[in-house]
Amino acid sequence: MQAFDTHTGLAVPLDRVNVDTDQIIPKQYLKSIKRTGFGDYLFDAWRFHDQGDIGMTRNERQINHRFALNLPAYQGASVLLARDNFGCGSSREHAVWALLEYGIRVVLAPSFADIFYGNCFKNGLLPVVLGEAEIDTLFGLAAEGLNLTVDLPNQQVVVKDGHSFGFEIAAGLKEKMLSGMDDIALSLQHRELITTFENKHRTAQPWLFDRQPQQ
Amino acid sequence: MEMANQGMTLYDKIWAAHEVGERVDGNNLLYIDLQLLHEVTSPQAFEGLQLNKRPLWRVDANLATPDHNVPTQDREKGLDGITDLIALEQVVTLDENCRDFGVRQFDILDQRQGIVHVVGPEQGATLPGMTIVCGDSHTSTHGAFAALAQGVGTSEVEHVMATQCLVQNKAKNFAVMVHGALADGVSAKDLILAIIGKLGTAGATGYTIEYMGETIRNLSMEGRMTLCNMSIEAGARAGLVAVDEVTLEYVAGRPFSPTGVLWDQAEAYWRTLKSDADAHFDSRLEIDAAGIVPQVTWGTSPEMVTGVDGVVPDPDDFADSVQRESAGHALKYMDLEPGTAITDIQLDRIFIGSCTNARIEDLRAAAGVIKGKTLAPNIKEALVVPGSGLVKAQAEEEGLAKIFVDAGFQWRAAGCSMCLGMNPDRVGPGEHCASTSNRNFEGRQGHGGRTHLVSPATAAASAIAGHFVDVRGW
Lengths: 215, 474
Ligand code: SF4
Prior knowledge:
Chain A has helices spanning 21-24, 44-47, 94-102, 114-123, 132-142, 171-179, 183-188, 191-204; strands spanning 6-13, 79-81, 106-109, 126-129, 147-151, 156-159, 164-166. By secondary structure, chain A is α/β, with parallel strands linked by helices. The mean pLDDT of chain A is 92.
């Protein structure tokens, strides 16, 4: 997982509430066996007029030129500005993978759905919760083209013209993003703890180990 | 924190027996005894291991079978019977991963293949007191054995593969206490639908449910599995039933169950797997089983459910504005008018299957109500999809398959099938389907399809009538 320290990038506004994970990445793409290859289908039903399917490339698609991500002004955006309850619906982690692969590193919103919020930290996407009024201000600025800096160590969103907003984040999650350490690496640091437990468990419930079918 | 002399719930006990300890970030590690794998949520996890050159922590704690998108026809052709190339790639990838990592798999041609949540218990892979995970939210099924069984996401699948642990903090305890006897024709499916109707789909979010009371004690293991299966539809990640004689009798003699001295040792421990009399539950719900009638869902969420003797509700009757709005939206999708008698809803398709209701007792209940009868002419298709190859074989031996076929049902090979419509079995746009599965979301069984969740007996009898019927008077 990519570590996150400070990121500066262009913000693209997505002015809708309750954006669910099926809108972020529709279910026809879940048949893929890879963790990659979803970026081209991010917000598929909004970015394109036609119904897409796995394997289709951008050139084959009917692009919706009015959708924010397709506007020339927002090409290369790496910060997504969103509204309430972003990422609700199915728990699919593909939603986070699609955003990252498209190039998004930060999502700013007044609130996030629980599971989506957790999935972000498993993959290195930073979800930042700001107040409604602050988000409104950013939407206003983004209409004109907004480059902003998200400073995780100092928990600040810094806008070029001098505005800056503080944000809250749980210490453990912040640490995880800063180190870029994935959950597995972190758990494997406790290898001894796990092994000690396992040995004790094997003694207590030996029937759960080395099981072979009878018959 | 448990007080020193406060009794423990069943969940507290299983949790305590698997608590590894705290990570540096303050999160808890919970040891996992068994991970069930299938073709849809495992490929990225295996890929992650390969990319990071990590081995499986414990190969023998994994068991795999393809189920979500295997076709239910032409099974004897094996992989060649899969016409959807993307589905084929997933099934082949599972084969390859299991081979490369040494994981035991019941593959597409193995008679033991089936829906993971049917296969685990059937093989004795699921045992009391275990912790079980699977990348599928209906893993809660295994809670019927007093096993803490939970659905997990793809990252968590990989995490358990690599560390044998789940990063998790403890949930709260919810007691669902059921008294009285279920009426004839009323099954565990009707009971759980009624419970979800009372709790709502988020009613138990953040909790582990324990189903208790004499009604539960009188259910068979298969009935208890149906019950625990749908705990997730009430928002709980896991549901549990305490161990009793019924549990032990079911587990004994299965291929992966312990034998001899190990069995004696296991049995002694398993008998302790029940909540103490003075255990503390954070929430409780009391249900009178005698008052439950066969249930039918009318909307696009499992909580939108009523008795078969009822009518489609009027959205305006909901006090809560969000509920009113979603009921209105659901009725539009389902194309149902408020006030319509449930028994007047005409059906196009019937699906008897899924990890909720595709075990032998389910098939017996369904076959029992249709013997010697035939499908109503308006039913375009009625599918019976057994939960595993072994259930299929047993049903054929008992003559159930013949009863279905004679009545005009299609008798298929094991898999998830029309439960989620990832394989070719789907409900068409605008069609009403009586289904024994667990989710009636928009488009779940096929684009534009309209799902009504019911018990196997209700689905079967309604196939004969062409509309919903009350099996109590059937
Ligand atoms: S039968 Fe349906 S709910 Fe059960 S595991 Fe398969 S897809 Fe999931």
